[in-house]
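User: Sequence in, structure out. Go.
Assistant: Echoing your sequence, followed by the structure tokens.
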Amino acid sequence: MLPDEMEAEKNRKIIVAQADEINILKNNIKELQEQLNAAHKRIKELTQARDNAYDDISGLIKEDLECR
């Protein structure tokens, strides 16, 4: 193999390795984005549940005060 061919093969291997790493990183980003979206959805659910609980407690307190 000629020196230029050896250099070209070395560069090709580097490029292929970098392409593989880029694909891995893209998949990682996709998975992390999905997890972040799920976390945002869960936070919204928990916030709504908390607000409903506060409303329920406020209503009970109000009823209790009216009964006194």
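User: And one key feature?
Assistant: The CA atoms of residues 4 and 34 lie 45 Å apart.
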